[in-house]
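User: Just a sanity check before I run the rest of the batch. Below are the structure tokens for the first item. I only need the designed sequence back.
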């Protein structure tokens, strides 16, 4: 059986042979195995992973071990190093997105920003968290993706709503709604538009304006498939608001989705 040390040597050999994809998959596997391999050290594995990133910055496989490394450091409670690794992810994804502006690289850039923002959230670094979201919005506009930009503006509004800045929240949710409408309608846009209108309804309720909230909840159902999970949850919120009750918890309609990456591994099934 190959030892962890031999596996690291194999990864370096693959890098020397200009095979970053296989090296990245091997390093990703080693990060996954890290908790069960006392011979492996995070620092040594991180050194090889960063070496891979330095040598092959435009390989689309390089973020795989970096993402696993972020999770390993978060689970170990080392949020400083997790931030360093996640920042490297963003740097690589940003450069690749500029070099090859495609839907896939745009998605990878957004995912890297989401990962870094999630670490900032754990550290309570609100300003840095918000900067990640602003970069996401900027890059969506830059690549002419108004639906992605609308989602980002909506998430900025969610931050305002959670902070109690209701005027700013309404302004951002309204701007996001406008961007969705300008983008045209498809299934994804309709769902996100509905979520945005629910947030407008929540904000109206926070202002004590139930009538306006009910209007937003009703509008959220426009274009949503009748009987779908989303439609049922909007109806639950609308009905609670109509009765003057506290809004129930929902599984789909959350306040804020950006920066909520979960780093814990699922428990093995028996």
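Assistant: Here's the designed sequence for the first item:
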């Amino acid at each position: 059986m190959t030892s962890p040390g031999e596996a690291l040597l194999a990864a370096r050999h693959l890098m020397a042979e200009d095979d970053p994809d296989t090296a990245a998959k091997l390093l990703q596997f080693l990060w996954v195995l890290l908790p069960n391999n006392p011979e492996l050290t995070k620092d040594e594995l991180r050194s090889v992973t960063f070496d891979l990133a330095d040598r092959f910055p435009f390989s689309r496989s390089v973020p795989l071990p970096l993402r696993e490394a972020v999770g390993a450091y978060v689970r170990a409670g080392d949020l400083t190093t997790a931030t360093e690794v996640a920042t490297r992810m963003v740097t690589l994804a940003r450069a690749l997105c500029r070099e090859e502006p495609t839907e896939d690289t745009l998605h990878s850039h957004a995912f890297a920003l989401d990962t870094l923002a999630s670490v900032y959230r754990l550290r309570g670094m609100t300003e840095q968290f918000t900067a990640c979201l602003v970069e996401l919005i900027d890059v969506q506009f830059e690549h002419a993706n108004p639906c992605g930009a609308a989602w980002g503006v909506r998430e900025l509004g969610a931050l305002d709503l959670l902070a109690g800045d209701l005027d700013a929240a309404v302004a951002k949710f309204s701007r996001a709604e406008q961007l969705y409408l300008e983008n045209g309608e498809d299934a994804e846009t309709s769902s996100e538009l509905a979520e945005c209108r629910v947030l407008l309804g929540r904000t109206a309720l926070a202002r004590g304006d139930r009538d306006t909230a009910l209007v937003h909840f009703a509008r959220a159902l426009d274009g949503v498939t009748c009987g779908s999970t989303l439609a049922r949850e909007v109806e639950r919120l609308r009905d609670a608001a109509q009765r003057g009750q506290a809004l129930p918890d929902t599984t789909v309609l959350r306040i804020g989705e950006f920066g909520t990456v979960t780093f814990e591994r699922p428990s093995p099934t028996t």
